[in-house]
Write a sequence for this structure.
């Protein structure tokens, strides 16, 4: 059984055989040591927030919510001084791994010092120039050390962008997954489209080395930076370090001048240079006559000009200019002079020895991906020659065992819940008791039923009993509630006589206890007194029915499966059967697993009745509100082979979805009512606004909605603005038409008011109604049992064209007919299922467990959250391999934990508005044993997480898991982009990300590693 979990996966491979990163935490006198990090932002960027941010599982900087509710970058943070310097302090235990240093404007306005002698626009030399609010300049560091210097400037930002870039196959010639040779060659020839990759130690350090060589620097991260305006004041560096510092400072100072010359800002110009470097795969055009070209010559000649002007300025003042500054100027001039027309740079750096270990990690990742791909395709081991999650022999055994269970349970379910089954007999018994009316009605039962008039129970309430087939006694008694009238009740119980669950078996039950019914196949169902699912009470099994009105006994016809409108149906039914037992023969499983099994089940259900409010003669039908079933089967007599099932369900829209049949069925979920009317005449009978004056003189504004089929008019009341609390109070009320003066004229009279909401600020009724109009609250109405309907307000004076005009006080508007807009569907608020099986290994007598857990939230069809976990292995080697995994696995065991969430988010549409995108997020943690990697078998713990973004209804091929069959287009956070499905996966080895996976062609997944290698991992 193969299921494609999603079209984009994020795999973090944590190889146990290679795990165990050493800790860098040191202690002094029993206390953890702190790390001190310092550096400079730009040449002198003042007021910037600087964060040393750890890398998240998606290979990007980690965001957190601060005390003000705003998202900020995680990690140690500081603010740059007027000279551009900063200092950070962090606990040693918090600085392991790779970090991104990010300078931005989160702390307020940020400025840079003008390094041009001629000044910067209207600001003089040495003054501070404001930077754009969207400033985000970064530097990547593969490893942090105590006392380390980390520069953050536009040159380190280019390296940061390179470190997080991957190039994918841009061919779109429709090659299929079967065109292997063509795909391989296409991948080799056409790796030309830059995509967001990952930050990690390998990519960061290589990018830093690459950009250092590109600009002729020893180390862009730690080299000293000397601003051109400060060359006469430097005392901390000398010799070659001074030359490099001045050289570096002049290059950093060049960008603001380049931006000004191009009539743009700092951030835009940096993006232009970075984009060119990325497009050229880390190179720059040396020189060009094109005025729009980004060239190395332009950068270096600008830096040279700025430095030369500063040297001349200080010479003119008679200041001492260090010789190192002159040498730096000569270096800049030399680079500029060496540039060639229309030729790219050819920077190529070797991988340093300290990163050599990444080769092994990448190779191991490839072995793992190949094994994982094969195992997913061959999950149950149907192909014995390929890796699988389940041992093939055991997989066939589990298959046959569950299929045999399914056959046996289907037989029992038909006999228990079919048209002539046990449940029907119980309902027939309930109907007989209802007609008897505690001896006051028709007490002549049909054959097979015997009424036994009971004495009043211990509470002094009436009680009747019916004996069904001489083997099951059903007891009817009313339940007193606070609103019950004398002798009248709206809640009744139908209790099944039972006894405590005996250890000695059914023969130990006293003969006078009637707690069984025959199934029709020679087997019996037995009901027992037991604890309910939450363990709060121990009770006999019962069915409880609720009515809207009060009765001396349940109305006759309540339990008939008909559509007679004269029959009063319960508004709610609760079924609580804490223990039902039966025996069944398992046949069709493998030898040793067949035989007589004992089944024990707990069943609890809460059903709500739904009618069509537009049709008084409609049948009451029932939806599940909650449902709980727990079942265990054991092979007799040793009871070692066993299977446990635990299912819990809570639904949504259960009181407003009108099902197609009277009793619940699984096919009812996520379906609209098929015969819902396309139009409802006079759906909104009137819309009305007015005001009333209270005795204290306060004026209360109100708005009424009168809908067809509703018992009350809905009213919203708005009280005067309260300046002391800066709030406006609103209240919801139910209103009825009442002939108060008995003159034949009805008036609107409030019956009850409940929901109170405090609105922030001063809000008028006109403003509130206009907001409701803009959000379609005023024009769309949910009609229980039917759907959501829309009215056209432009047919009245409320709306002119598409513009809201308002309602005049004292004027009734309507009626308005409603046109069908959308379905009301029965959804899943929460579903959890746990299946656990233990099968005895005939060879070594050990038990082999298989565990599966599922949780699902799916309130509407296209939005849901799913989690599942699975484990398999021999019991003696079972161990908890990871708390995160959530299932136990070890030795030869296999297991996984999976999460998938589909939701909708709103992002900018690039035109000042918002657009809705669909977002899929996933997480998969896998335990695999005996994975062949490099000639040895290793255990692997794999982490998989996902993020996919797209919109629907465009021309691109659909992507993702949930709506793969629908047309979609890209929906990244960059609203201007529309280049297909935005989906990516990330691979992690020993805590560091090593590559990305993308669906580069429909159903073709390519892994690209940080060393530039790649592999097709499957389709």
């Amino acid at each position: 059984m193969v299921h494609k979990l999603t079209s984009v996966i994020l795999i973090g491979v944590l190889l146990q055989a290679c795990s165990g990163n050493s800790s860098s935490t040191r202690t002094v006198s029993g206390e953890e040591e702190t790390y001190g990090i310092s550096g400079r932002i730009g040449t002198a960027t003042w007021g910037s927030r600087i964060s040393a941010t750890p890398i998240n599982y998606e290979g990007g900087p980690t965001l957190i919510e601060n005390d003000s509710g705003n998202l900020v970058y995680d990690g140690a943070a500081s603010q740059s001084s007027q000279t551009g310097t900063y200092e950070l302090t962090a606990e040693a235990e918090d600085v392991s791994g790779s970090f991104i240093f990010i300078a931005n404007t989160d702390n307020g306005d940020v400025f840079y010092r003008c390094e041009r002698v001629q000044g910067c626009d209207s600001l003089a030399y040495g003054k501070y120039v404001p930077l754009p609010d969207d400033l985000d300049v970064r530097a990547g560091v593969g490893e942090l050390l105590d006392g380390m210097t980390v520069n953050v400037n536009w040159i380190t930002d280019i390296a940061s962008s390179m470190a997080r870039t991957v190039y994918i196959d841009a061919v779109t010639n429709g090659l299929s997954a079967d065109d292997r040779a063509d795909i391989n060659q296409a991948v080799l020839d056409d790796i030309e489209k830059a995509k967001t990759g990952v930050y990690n130690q390998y990519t960061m350090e290589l990018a830093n080395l690459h950009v250092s060589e590109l600009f002729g620097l020893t180390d862009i991260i730690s080299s000293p930076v000397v601003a051109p305006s400060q060359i006469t004041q430097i005392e901390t560096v000398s010799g070659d370090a001074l030359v490099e510092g001045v050289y570096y400072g002049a290059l950093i100072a060049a960008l603001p001048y380049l931006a000004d010359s191009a009539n743009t800002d700092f951030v835009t110009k940096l993006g232009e240079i970075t984009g060119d470097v990325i497009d050229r795969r880390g190179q720059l055009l040396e020189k060009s006559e094109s005025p729009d070209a980004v060239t190395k010559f332009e950068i270096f000649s600008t830096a040279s000009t700025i430095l030369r002007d500063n040297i001349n300025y200080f010479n003119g003042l008679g200041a001492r200019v260090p010789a190192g500054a002159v040498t730096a100027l000569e270096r800049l001039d030399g680079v500029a002079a060496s540039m060639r027309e229309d030729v790219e740079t050819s920077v190529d750096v070797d991988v340093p020895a300290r990163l050599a270990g990444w080769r092994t990690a990448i190779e191991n990742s490839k072995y793992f991906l190949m094994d994982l791909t094969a195992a997913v395709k061959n999950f149950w081991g149907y192909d014995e020659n390929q890796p699988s999650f389940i041992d093939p022999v055991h997989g066939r055994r589990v298959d046959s065992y569950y299929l045999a269970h399914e056959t046996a349970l289907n037989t029992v379910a038909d006999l228990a819940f079919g048209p002539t089954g046990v449940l029907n007999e119980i309902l027939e018994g309930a109907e007989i008791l209802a007609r008897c009316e505690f001896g006051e009605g028709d007490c002549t039962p049909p054959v097979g039923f015997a009424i036994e008039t009971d004495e009043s129970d211990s509470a002094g309430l009436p009680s009747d009993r019916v004996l069904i087939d001489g083997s099951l006694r059903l007891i009817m008694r009313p339940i007193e509630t606070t609103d019950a009238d004398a002798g009248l009740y709206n809640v009744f119980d139908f209790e099944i006589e039972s006894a405590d669950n005996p250890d000695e078996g059914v023969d130990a039950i006293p003969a006078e206890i009637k707690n069984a019914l025959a199934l029709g196949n020679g087997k019996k169902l037995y009901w027992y007194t037991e604890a309910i699912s939450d363990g709060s009470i121990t009770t006999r099994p019962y069915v409880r029915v609720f009515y809207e009105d009060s009765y001396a006994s349940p109305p006759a016809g309540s339990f008939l499966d008909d559509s007679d409108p004269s029959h009063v149906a319960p508004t709610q039914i609760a079924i609580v059967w804490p223990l039902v037992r039966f025996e069944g023969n398992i046949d069709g499983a493998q030898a040793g697993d067949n035989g007589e099994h004992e089944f024990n089940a707990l069943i609890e259900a809460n059903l709500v009745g739904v009618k069509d409010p537009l049709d008084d003669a409609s049948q009451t039908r029932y939806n599940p509100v909650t449902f709980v079933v727990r079942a265990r089967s054991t092979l007799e007599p040793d009871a070692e082979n066993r299977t446990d099932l635990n299912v819990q369900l809570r639904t949504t829209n259960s009181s407003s979805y009108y099902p197609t049949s009277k009793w619940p069925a699984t096919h009812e979920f996520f379906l609209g009512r098929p015969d819902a009317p396309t139009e409802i005449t006079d759906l909104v009978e009137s819309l009305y606004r007015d005001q009333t004056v209270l005795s204290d003189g306060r004026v209360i504004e109100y708005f009424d909605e009168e809908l067809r089929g509703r018992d009350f008019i809905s009213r919203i009341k708005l009280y005067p603005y309260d300046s002391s609390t800066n709030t406006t109070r609103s209240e919801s009320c139910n209103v009825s038409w009442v002939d108060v003066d008995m003159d034949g004229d009805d008036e609107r009279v409030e019956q009850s008011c409940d929901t109170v909401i405090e609105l922030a600020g001063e809000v008028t009724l006109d403003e509130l109604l206009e907001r409701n109009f803009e959000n379609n609250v005023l024009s769309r109405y949910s009609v229980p049992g039917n759907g959501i309907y829309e009215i056209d307000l432009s047919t009245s004076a409320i709306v002119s064209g598409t513009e809201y005009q308002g309602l005049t006080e004292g004027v009734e508007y309507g009626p308005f007919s409603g046109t069908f807009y959308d379905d009301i569907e029965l959804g899943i608020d929460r579903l959890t299922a746990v299946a656990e099986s233990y099968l005895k290994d005939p060879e070594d007598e050990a038990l082999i467990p298989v565990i599966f857990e599922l949780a699902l939230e799916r309130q509407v069809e296209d939005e849901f959250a799913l989690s599942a976990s699975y484990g398999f292995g021999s019991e003696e080697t079972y161990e908890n391999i990871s708390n995160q995994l959530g299932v136990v696995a070890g030795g030869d065991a296999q297991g996984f934990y999976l999460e998938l969430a589909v939701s909708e988010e709103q992002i900018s549409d690039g035109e000042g508005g918002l657009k809705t995108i669909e977002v899929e997020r996933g997480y998969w943690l896998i335990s695999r044993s005996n994975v062949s990697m490099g000639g040895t078998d290793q255990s692997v713990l794999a982490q998989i997480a996902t993020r996919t973004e797209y919109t629907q209804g465009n021309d691109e091929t659909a992507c993702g898991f949930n709506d793969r069959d629908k047309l979609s287009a890209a929906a990244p956070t960059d609203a201007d982009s529309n280049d297909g499905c935005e989906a990516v996966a990330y691979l992690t080895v020993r805590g560091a990300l090593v590559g990305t996976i993308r669906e580069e062609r429909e159903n073709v997944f390519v892994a690209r590693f940080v060393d530039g290698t790649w592999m097709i991992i499957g389709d």
